[in-house]
Amino acid sequence: MTPTRPIHLTVNGQAHRCAVAPRQHLVDFLREDLGLTGSHLGCEHGVCGACSVRLDGQVVRGCLVLAVQADGRSVETIEGLTDGGTARDLQDAFVARNALQCGYCTSGMLMAAAELLHAQPHATREEVRVWMSGNYCRCTGYQAIVDAVCDVLISRKAAEVLISRKTAEVLTSPKIAAGTQRAAS
Q1: Containing H/E element for 75?
Q2: Of all residues in the chain, what percent are helix, strand and coil, respectively (each to 5)?
Q3: What is the number of other CB atoms lying within 10 angstroms of the CB of residue 8?
Q4: Helix (H), strand (E) at residue 18
């Protein structure tokens, strides 16, 4: 029998204390021990991205990280990302653009796309293409995936502009201006 090591980690906001084999990969631990099957094993070499999870906020390949390396750290899986609602517009865009077919790569694609939207909210189409190139999809041909991510970038930029305009309108409204003048005197 393989000896185990105790680990304590937070997965999708929940603390876990578990015993794991020293050579067990993080994605295997998440799938087999915690029942979080959204991340998939594809190439098992860190190339395809199907096993992508966030480790302390950074997307990593779950097949290249050992579960013991996650001791004391925070892991977010696709289940955590989607349960939080922060990727709802991204999921909707993937459906609208038919950016998923068999679904095997989808969790990794969504993790990568969510990281891009956070890291580069004003990315160009070419930057999206380059960013997403680290994940493999054998079904869609990537065009629909890039389209979906670009749709979300555009809609989030439009929402940002709308919020800025509404804020400016409120701040320059006569009532606010009069209140500001009274407060200054």
Answers
A1: strand 74-76
A2: 50, 15, 35
A3: 12
A4: strand 14-20
Is 3 a residue whose pLDDT tops 70? yes
* Cβ 75 vs Cβ 30: under 8 Å: yes
Q: Which residues pair with 14 in a beta bridge?
A: 11
Q: Report how far residue 33's alpha carbon sits from residue 46's, in angstroms, rounded to the nearest whole number.
A: 21
| Confidence band of 68 (pLDDT split at 50, 70, 90) | very high
Find, among 26, 160, 11, the residue nearest to 83 by Cα.
Answer: 11
The amino acid present at 63, given as its one-letter code, is C
The Cα–Cα gap between 54 and 125 comes to 24
72, burial (CB in 10 Å: exposed 0-12, middle 13-18, buried 19+):
exposed
Q: Rounded to whole angstroms, what are the CA distances from 123 to 81, 88, 119, 128, 157? A: 21, 19, 9, 6, 11
Q: How much is the mean pLDDT over the chain? A: 91
pLDDT at 171 over 90: no
- Cβ distance 22 to 3 under 8 Å? yes
